[in-house]
Design goal:
Elements (H helix, E strand, L loop, with lengths): L3 E7 L3 E7 L6 E4 L4 H11 L5 E3 L5 H4 L2 H7 L3 E5 L11 E3 L4 E4 L2 E7 L8 E5 L4 E5 L2 E2 L2 E2 L7 H12 L6 E4 L4 H11 L4 H15 L7 E2 H7 L8 H6 L7 H13 L2
Parallel strand pairs: 3-4, 4-5, 5-6, 10-13
Antiparallel strand pairs: 1-2, 2-3, 7-8, 8-9, 9-10, 11-12, 13-14
Helix pairs in contact: 1-3, 4-9, 5-6
């Protein structure tokens, strides 16, 4: 059976995720922006925390960990390449490693770009990938440490997953991302419909995260650098997709 995945809003616009296996009782937390909402969700559901999966070292993904661990003896897992900047790890992993949560295989993916050493966690049986600040709903993370070629390689790796994969990303930036996306592809009807859907969801106070990879592939400009129409819109027809991505990222940085 797939794991039950719960989105937990944290801080002003962050998300953490709980992935629960009813059979074993195992529950994994992906990122720990703040303790209170995560602890409240665990208590309300009667779940015990068994694992914490950290995507990268930024404070808004790790600052709640100490308080959470005070009440839950969970195993903390993160990238070996970033171990010096992460909270103390019980298990340091590298891309290509496989974990297990409640019998579910978990694949560690390299997604550096936003930071160096950023990882994502893919759960193929549950059709979910936890991407932190690499691939986001209608966006991608700003390149604080890596370069455009590195991030394009990371996004291409994620884009190759099955289209029905649920993309569980770290922030509620989707509405602003949609406004930018329409400056890149104003003619994209799938994007226009998604922007309308997002506005309705936010008006109801609903999260726009997670989203399906198929929807990201159809609407997210950062995944569409190889699409001829996108290249034409940017005056870059036939260019290397990594260069097109770099142009899109630069435009977003100044949007």
């Amino acid at each position: 059976m797939p794991l039950e995945i719960v989105t937990v809003p944290c801080l002003a616009d962050n998300y953490a995720f709980l992935a629960h296996d009813p059979a074993s009782g195992d529950t994994a937390l992906v990122d720990a922006p703040e303790a209170a909402p995560i602890l409240a969700e665990l208590k309300a559901r009667g779940w015990r925390l068994s694992h914490v999966l950290l995507t990268h070292h930024h404070y808004d993904h790790v600052d709640g960990l100490g308080e959470i661990l005070a009440g839950h003896g969970a195993q903390v897992i993160g990238a070996a390449a970033d171990a010096a900047r992460l909270p103390p790890l019980d298990r340091a992993v590298k891309p290509g490693d496989r974990l297990e949560i409640g019998g579910e295989p978990v694949e560690v993916l390299e997604v550096s770009g936003h930071t160096v050493g950023h990882v994502a966690y893919h759960m193929p049986r549950s059709r979910a990938v936890f991407t932190g600040d690499s691939l986001m709903a209608l966006g991608c993370g700003r390149l604080f440490e890596g370069d455009a070629a590195q991030m394009w390689a990371s996004l291409s790796r994620l884009a190759a997953l099955p289209g029905d994969t649920l993309v569980c990303s770290g922030h509620e930036y989707t509405q602003a991302n949609g406004r930018f996306a329409q400056t890149i592809e104003p003619e994209n009807e799938d994007l226009a419909q998604r922007v309308r859907d997002i506005a309705e969801m936010r008006a109801r106070g609903e999260p726009t995260v997670p989203s399906h990879l198929s929807l990201e592939l159809a609407t997210n400009p950062f995944l569409r650098a190889g699409v001829v129409q996108v290249q034409r819109n940017l005056g870059m027809k036939g260019a290397d997709p990594a260069a097109v991505f770099a142009e899109i990222r630069a435009r977003k940085d100044n949007f």
